[in-house]
Every structure is written in structure tokens, then in C-alpha cells.
Amino acid sequence: MDHRPFLILDLLDADAAPVEEVAKFVKSEFNPEAIRASANELKYTRAIKSELQQEVTNPSEEFVRLLMGRVYSGVKTKTKLEQFTSMTRRAARQLIRDELRGTLNTALAQGDPTAPEVTSGSDSMSATEESEDDIITTEAELNGYYAVKAILHASVEPNRVTLRDSKRACTIILDDNQRKPVCRFWFDKKQKYLGVFDENKKETRLPIDSVDEIFAHADTLRATAARYS
After folding, report:
1. At what angle do helices 78-109 and 32-57 cross, to 10 degrees?
2. Cα(74)–Cα(29) distance, rounded to whole angstroms?
3. What is the pLDDT of residues 132-162, one digit of tens each?
4. Which candidate in 4, 90, 141, 160 could, as Cys together with 170 as Cys, close a disulfide (CB 3.0–4.6 Å)?
């Protein structure tokens, strides 16, 4: 048996592409030759995707040298290799961010309001009322909101995602309902934290250095949002 699967279908986080492939196994559409060809392509496509994901997260020396050879004509010293490794990792994050931002902008242009829906005031984490005039939603918080909206775009209608700001933190919720928290931004200090929630809505704060790092926790945010479907 081939130990490398050509298709993985997660019923708790179903994606449209795997579902379409499974549909080929329906009796009325069953075609062994077509399925065999599709399985072979899917197996290697999935393997390539895994390799690319690894290179984006932790670029190998071989991959960095390949890119250096295309953009840099100087001597490839150890110091230069370390610099290009860092630049490769940063460029990959920026590329992913730009692609997601483009997807989000397209979705917004198709009917979703251009500006985020921001609500303020006290919620479950604040015991006292806050003046709306005292609350300032920062650029970092707005960028975080757009990042979460892009992450959830495939499974959640954009107009369901709401930003609720307060003096201490900024919470992303669904359906303007504080009982449906997706994540929380703690961006008021030098060290930023992303608050994520488990099945019992217990919050865990994860240190992040930039808003871009929210994308590294995309699966967690999608799983949280799925619990409110």
C-alpha cells in the first residue's frame, strides 16, 4: 500500500476541493481511469505543497542558495547566506499576506462593506463601562482584523466578522456576539499577544512579533469559528 495519501478529508474542517474529489467516487460518476489519474496528480501536488510550506516556514540552505543565485551575483559567504535566509522567510510571509489581502479586497469589492464594523464598550473581560471616546482602534488592530477576516473568508461570511474594541484589548467576534469570540489582540504593549480560545472559551495568549504572524495560527482560528456555525 502507498503510505503517501493522495487525499485527506477532514469532516470537521471540510474544504471545497477535497469534497469535489470525493464526488468522483459517486456510483453514477465512477470512472476508474479518471480516478487513478486524479489520484496520482493529487498525491504529488499534495507532496509539493508540503515541501513549499516547509520552505516558507523554514527555508532550507538549498532553497536559499537557489534564490540567491537568481537575485545576487556576489560571493555567497556564510554571513550572506544567513541574511538571505532571513530575507527569504520574510519575503514568503509578505507574499502570503499580499495574496490574502488581494483575496480580501476582492471579497469586499463584491459587496462587503469597505470599512470594518467596529463596536466598542465593555464586554465579558471588562468589569467597568468605557467611554467610546477613550477607545482608539489602532492600525495594527485593523490590520489584524483584516488578517482574521481573510483567514475565515472561505468558511465564514465576511459580514459576520466583527471587531469589538476596548481600552485593554481588541476582540474579533462573530455575529456581533461577545459569546462567539474568535481571537483577541493584546497590542497595547511592546510585546504583542494573540489570544486564542479553546472549546471552553478559555483564552491562551500567544506572543507574536508582528500582525503577519496571525496567519501562522490560521487553522486554530478557523477551528474556533467553526464551533459557532
Report:
1. 120
2. 57
3. 446 778 888 988 998 999 999 888 988 899 9
4. 141
Instruction: List C-alpha distances in Å: 215 to 17, 63, 92, 93, 206.
Output: 21, 22, 12, 9, 13
Question: How far is residue 68 from each of residues 62, 74, 84, 155, 158, measured CA to CA in Å?
Answer: 10, 9, 7, 38, 39
For residue 209, which of 184, 229, 192, 188 has the smallest C-alpha distance?
Answer: 192
Q: Which residues face 206 on adjacent strands?
A: 194
Cβ neighbours of residue 83 closer than 8 Å, sequence gap 6 or more: none
Look up cell 508540503; give the residue: 50
Spatial distance between the Cα atoms of 163 and 183, rounded to a whole number of angstroms? 10
Output the pTM of the full model: 0.47
User: What's the CA gap between 152 and 182, in Å, rounded?
Assistant: 10
pLDDT per residue over 26-74, tens digit each? 566 666 776 677 777 777 887 888 888 888 888 999 999 999 999 998 8
C-alpha cell at 1: 500500500
How far does Cα 169 stand from its chain's mean position? Answer: 20
